[in-house]
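Lecture 7 notes: from sequence to structure.

We start with a single chain of 265 residues. Read the sequence below before looking at the structure.
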Amino acid sequence: MNPKKIGFIGCNNMSGAILHGALEGRALSKENVYVYDINPVVIERMTSLGVNVVANNHELCQKSDLIVLGTKPQHLEGALLECGNALDGKAVVSIAAGITIERIDAMIVGKARILRIMPNTPSMVNAGANVFCLETDLKEDEKETVVAIFNAIGMVEWVPERLINAISGMSGGGPAYIAMFIEAMADAGVKNGIPREMAYRLSAQTCFGTAKMILETKMHPGMMKDMVTSPGGTTIEGVEALEKGGMRYAVMDCITRATKKASKL
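Now the structure, written as tokens:
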């Protein structure tokens, strides 16, 4: 368990999922965690969790060795302003979508070491796809601390910052796209007589199991499709319908548009 003191500026949704996963995975201990959030409901939840709740962002930075910026992008500048010079010399990890390292650095009073990360919501169930920017000046022990925290809630990949907006559009927004696909599969099941709750379970498990097979066997997705599509069978009929409906183009266009939007934040 890491002895560093970790502060969370904002601890709802994504950052809250990171904290819960790190505590459950024993990458962090409650006594070494400091939290501040403007939402009283979040503060109440963090208090019941047993971590240290502080009065403001400045105090949090003073008491922490490494600070996770968990606010929404539009609130980041205000939160950093509240920190004053307490971030000077500290390690900072940002999960704010669309905010570059250069912009974060310009918002901080003094000089902090910065690591930019793009997590995604399956971190809530320790199955996150977490992407780190290679352009970081965190010390080696600080990097090890952050990797341990995020390994506790999923996988970690390192990429150049120039790819982070594309990753935001793909794996950052991906849970929404996949959820829509699961919902559509379930609707089709209901149309054909399958009970609603069972249709959701079967659709979700099918997506989960397919993803697990691809990750564990390293099988190409096309090969997996070929395994299921027997000559003249039922699946190839469904594949033809997806191709006719332009599924591949729709998915590619979806992620490209989300990437462009991330670059404008």
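The chain is about 55% helix and 15% strand. Keep this in mind for problem set 3.
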